[in-house]
């Protein structure tokens, strides 16, 4: 299969911004260090790690939202995404910020315009997605009335509105109840069945084990290993990702 994402030896340092800490000699900290992996077309590729391990920094480097200090990244065979390339990409950030006074339908139409979805198709697409996520009855409501879990669903709705070829999900299950989590997993698997490549960060090991093709374990900014889940499950009937994760991260 074709490589959709190629990450080669990227490193990123967080520069110290506090002038007083600089005076004391602090130069910052390491975000990620010498990370390499590939993501194949149509795969679900997951990154797991503890808080602060470098998951979100890695994702933002791939998207071009942060620039690594070293290394190379290619997405769709390009070193930099531009213009219409982003119409093929969906992105749910770890924390989504929306104007609280805006109505859900207006927010979705705004994202539809950003994706250049034809006006004649947009409202139909919005209705299908909102219905799928159980938000159709709330499309006329302002976001100030939405719970955290509902806002997370809104974020997922905008991320998949353009039927992306490449979907980035940063902690997609955050704030969701068990039923909503199952729904999101169903949506992810449905997108995969249609050929979407999915890259997501999470700390929920059960979700990773159940749907991922490959899993990258990151600890303290370093790539510990990349697991082929199908191969692992075939070779080790008693394999438990949780136990393996704890052991692997603990050893580092």
TrEMBL record:
One of its GO terms (molecular function) is ATP binding. The keyword Transport applies. Gene3D superfamilies: P-loop containing nucleotide triphosphate hydrolases (3.40.50.300). Keywords: ATP-binding, Nucleotide-binding, Transport. It holds the Pfam family ABC_tran. CDD domains: ABC_DR_subfamily_A. It comes from the Bacteria. Residues 14-245 form the ABC transporter domain. This is ATP-binding cassette domain-containing protein. It comes from Psychrilyobacter piezotolerans. The lineage of its organism: Bacteria, Fusobacteriati, Fusobacteriota, Fusobacteriia, Fusobacteriales.
